[in-house]
Amino acid sequence: MMVVGVTGGIGSGKTTVTDLFATHGIKVIDADVVAREIVLPGQPCLQRLQEAFGDEVLAKDGSLNRAWLRDKIFSDSAAKTQVNEIMHPAIRTELLRQLNAADSPYVILSAPLLVENNLTKLCDRVLVVDVSTQVQRQRTLERDGVSAAQVEAILAAQVSRNERLAAADDVIDNNGPVTALAEQVAQLHQQYLSIATST
């Protein structure tokens, strides 16, 4: 099974791009979705986070208190390391399970930290959804309702635009209107189909 890794910085439009691949019948496995699923109530990861950080990590309904955990890992590098040690192996295991079960001509692995977390090793090709840093800031502020300081912290935690582009086999330019994306995705889809069927 050919695996195409799709990545991009925050606010780059990864989800819009992977949704377009899905319209072509391609299975999309999203690391962000998997990361949310493994910390649902009753899951071992949530229990381990509670053991590590106490009841503060839980919301009143017993689910993960994401806002508390986000603040914690941005202000405490040791806590960030601890969270990564708990979550990353579980995420990788579930990603591999879903990749092995995929049944489309090729499969998309969507991960914002594809390069940072060395998930490129699981991929045959890497597609980067690229936008300028200015566009990233603007879109993230509008979409997520976070502070400018939080946006800067998120940008600082991700690899630079140049590092991400250096890992790319293919690039989609998403600085323009969303209507320009469909054609770029359609062209890449045909390219990926021909690679997948020729191997």
UniProtKB/TrEMBL annotation:
Keyword presence, Cell cycle: no
Predominant cellular place of this UniProt entry's protein: cytoplasm
Keyword Disulfide bond: no
InterPro entries on file: Depp_CoAkinase, P-loop_NTPase
Swiss-Prot/TrEMBL catalytic activity: 3'-dephospho-CoA + ATP = ADP + CoA + H(+)
Compartments (UniProt record): Cytoplasm
Binding sites annotated in the UniProt record for ATP: 11-16
Any matching Pfam family: CoaE
GO molecular-function term, one example from the UniProt record: ATP binding
Keywords in alphabetical order: ATP-binding, Coenzyme A biosynthesis, Cytoplasm, Kinase, Nucleotide-binding, Transferase
GO biological process: coenzyme A biosynthetic process
Record-listed E.C. numbers: 2.7.1.24
Entry GO terms, CC: cytoplasm
Leader sequence residues: none
Gene3D superfamilies: P-loop containing nucleotide triphosphate hydrolases
Pathway: Cofactor biosynthesis; coenzyme A biosynthesis; CoA from (R)-pantothenate: step 5/5
Function: Catalyzes the phosphorylation of the 3'-hydroxyl group of dephosphocoenzyme A to form coenzyme A.
Family, similarity comment: Belongs to the CoaE family.
Protein name stated in the entry: Dephospho-CoA kinase
The organism of origin for this protein: Pseudidiomarina planktonica
Gene label: coaE
